Queue: 4 jobs
Job 1
Amino acid sequence: MIEQFVKEALAEDVGRGDLYALVEAAMPASAKIIAKSDGVVAGRKYIDAMAKLENFSVTWLKSDKQTFLNGETIATVEADSHTLLRCERTLLDMLLHASSIATLTRKYVDIVEPYNVKLLDTRKTRPLLRVFEKYATRCGGAVNHRMGLDDSLMIKDTHLKTIKNLQDYIEDARKVIPFTAKIEVEADTLFIAQEAMAAQADIVMCDNMAPAQVEEVVAFRNENYPHILLEASGNISLETIESYAKTGVDAISSGALVHQANWIDLSMKMD
């Protein structure tokens, strides 16, 4: 999957061929990938796959999940000049995209870690980039939420509009979904959360609740259904996440890890 993704990304940029290479012969070349801002590395798996496909060597001075500072060299690359210059933009775009997500994710993780709360990503990813972007959140320290509709059953508010009896639905679902698949129910009120717990959901998501409301759900869970996991979600930001981490939930999910990640600054400098 990674190799195919890299092939398609290169093809998008190269098209029918790099016009630069028509002018003069290739020569031996080397370059450095240099940080122009602070951040967290993500993307090494993909760059390594590119190096194998395009026959260039890469020496990493920083690994996935490691932090870097403005001015540090992240990696060095060696190949002929045609190869390096043909791959430059795609290589940097992959490293920038993934590292930018990992960098923002690490900021969230640093806030919730003291409270023993897991940070989760969401399915709010760019089309066809889910695997890549969720890999980047892992590099930042997050735990992946479900990858798609097929690995767990989440009953959202839109689903609840179609379900007459939640307990009956969950009982029927247990008979047909994989044995290892969990069932999560989204709740925006204490009443719906209580109903979901009574129906034996594995996870209850406190969606768009204020921290005080989440605390009520946590208190009810702790007293009545201590085995059920609780997740907080909805409008989670760097400014608000600590207030949710303090409520006692098991996990907090945020789409912002991906869609609010501003690109950091990296560049390739030829030696």
Job 2
Amino acid sequence: MFVNLYRWSYGIVLYEIFTIGGNPYDGMTGEEVFSFVASGRRMRKTSTISPELYELMLRCWNKEPSKRPKFSNIVDWMETSYTRS
């Protein structure tokens, strides 16, 4: 169960890194965040996040925990996408 929460949290960490310290769910209380997420809504893509990275973040935030990417897949994707040849 906790691994699935970590996968969700990894999407949040990506948001914080690629928005250069952006505050996820800015201005929302914990209750508001819960309602926002429970309703199926997700944070928006910002201009500092590539479409491919945002897709990974959305996969991390999948409502179905079993459909969230495994860390090994995330690592593979990051190595492929963000390493120089």
Job 3
Amino acid sequence: MELVDWPAGTERSFLRNAQGLRLPLVRVPAANARATVVLVHGVAVCARHDFLRAPRRGARHTTFDGSFAHALWRAGLTLVLYDQQGMGEADSVRPSCRHYFERFDDLAEDLLAVTAAAAAAAPPALPLYWLGLSMGGGVCVRASQLRATPAAAGLVLLAPMLCLTAAREELLLPALGIRNRHLYPVMRQLSACIPTAQLVRKAPNAAFPHLEEELLAEPLNHSAPLRVRVAAEFVLATEAFMGGGEAARALEAARVGDVLLVHALADTLAEPDGSRAAYERMSVEGEKALLLVGGGGVEGSFRREGKGRGGAAAAALERLKDCGMWHALTLEPGFERLGEAIGLWIGESAAARG
């Protein structure tokens, strides 16, 4: 992350997790901070890629000013960014194998460790939030199930990886008509026998091709098919989330303060049905809100319930319901306005906590 011209006062460090792996951390303190937000990136990228921006189209994401992260910081939120194990500049559990992890729960445990470090660096009364994009959203939900009480004051889940039924239809071997779903019956066996093989394809960002160029421009990112173990863990995690009932891994088991879910209706990578289910099934102590982003003739919607505040954040989120996004919500056109609205929402949530 050394390429970035971070704001003055930015702190860089490393956290050693329970597996002995070093995870790089960047803490960007805000003046008169209202809350701390831990940013959790998606699969096969680094934190810098998901939350900063490119200085020009097609370039690496090295610019803080004008980025999604900058919008949050300007709202008075101290930011903590980290690379998840096996990705970015973080250590890998198998040193020669990048963009790999053994268990999805390892990522959730890492988030809890990062949270503890972030809380220790902040004033005692400052609330702490998690913001997860795509896979990062799934990590946040899983981490919220691993403690008897909420580990974060609130969650912001952007296109969270909670439901992956559409990904089953992505072509794996186009010439033979073989799709990802054809591997599902033997996923566990493949995960045990060839865990690091790169077999499972994910959908490209056809809606915004320049972002696909920027993904490829970053050498820390991974554009090849997902590794078998990673894909298998995704399938197991998302099927557990969507399974329903009171199972320990179902969405009902999440322990949450406030929660905001944002999902584009056009998303074909992580399905909006996951966010709909989370909104309906997760119990919260305060407010839960769901923004479904439409556009291109598809009408979006905004809903909220619980101890709703109905302030500036709700109005700002409502105005985004037809802005036309796909999946990379922190990077696609409209990300600045989304960052500002989320900053308002977290600020109102923190104020309501007293």
Job 4
Amino acid sequence: MTTATTTTTKTANTTVEAPVPPAKMQKPEPGRISTLTRTEEVKLKLMWSYLLVEQGIAPESLCEDAREASQKLAKTTTNTSSGSDKKKKSGGGLFGFGKKKSDAEATEEVAEATINAARKKYRDAVKNYDAEALNRALFQMYRADHPDNLVLRFLRARKWDVAEAMSMLGETVAWRLEFDVESLTYKGEERVKQEGQDGLMLQFRSKKCYTYGHDKKARPIVHVRPRFHDPKAQSEEDVQKFTVFTIENARLCLQDPVDTAAVIFDLSDFSLSNMDYAAVKFIIKCFENHYPESLGFILIHKAPWIFQGIWNIIKNWIDPVVAAKISFTKNFEDMNQFIEAKYIPKELGGQREYEYEYEEPVEGENELQQDEETRKNLEDQRLDIGKRFQQAVIDWIQSPDLETSDKMQQKKNELAEEFKNNYWKYDPYGRARGILDRTGQIKYFQGF
């Protein structure tokens, strides 16, 4: 594995080791912005057109523009990789149909039905919220991501079926508003502690879950240790909030082109008294429905014999795509196939010296949140960048040829980088500091 420049970050109780994970040295996987086939690019244009029209940002005609773009592409090429002259094979037609009909025939036949189905599915999912709330929720949901990457997660998760991807995205936006994810991350651990939410604070203090280290592909590792979980010690709501806290914070450790995390379920000393089916169901729901394409792999390590019966129940809840990412490991050698020894805990046979200890919120760590003027200015900047990005998307969809389309994609990429930089300026004003800030993990993974 390649290495990066070494740095050392010190916090109150922790020294974060170097090197910074070499995310930039990793190759982007298929279905990402730089690796899209032309057919996949059309799917992305179609989905953006439906989304912008449904959000009230673009006129109805944009859907027709996207349809015409797909028809033009069908008559020229569906096999050229975006931004490249290299030919690639792609399965099915532009709308996911088989090879019996040409792409042009399939496009003409189903385009109208696809547009209507996709838009209706999204509309039904978000019917309880107005356009302003939905736009704000989307901007918040992007965080430091390239907006294209976020949309592509939903397309890949639904096998490039635009209607199903629109439905999934709509349901996720509605869920985030209902669960009030942004309020949760804005208040953070300090407010949880101040408000005396002992059940939720117990989750952090219990050492049942933490993020540290990375696998051989620079994915951050989320360590889950069920032996520290007592299903009766807190409410189901506390477990759900902690799960969302963990996922949202882990997202901040991702750096393009690394866009997935690794999860280890360490079942050492696990017993039936630790089993919590409700918590497992919620975790599965989150990853499958609301954080799609976020898992690189899951290792279920040292599962005892009693887990066999539990697994026979749980596996029926898991989507086959997610199930394919699960591996059972028994010893250091098994785990070492995925993770370097220096990131495997000593108790599991590795070389890692780091031992997780929860660091309590530090008084004053969120004082920047009191600067409402700066926060508002950064939010306004974010809104401006977002609007310019949306206009660039419209121009990209309406591009008259592939060369213009590629130029507009580059403009989108530049605005997405501006969007990302804005987020990291905004972050300390809009998100409370958490354990990954106090231990230096976010800085470690982002290379700050």
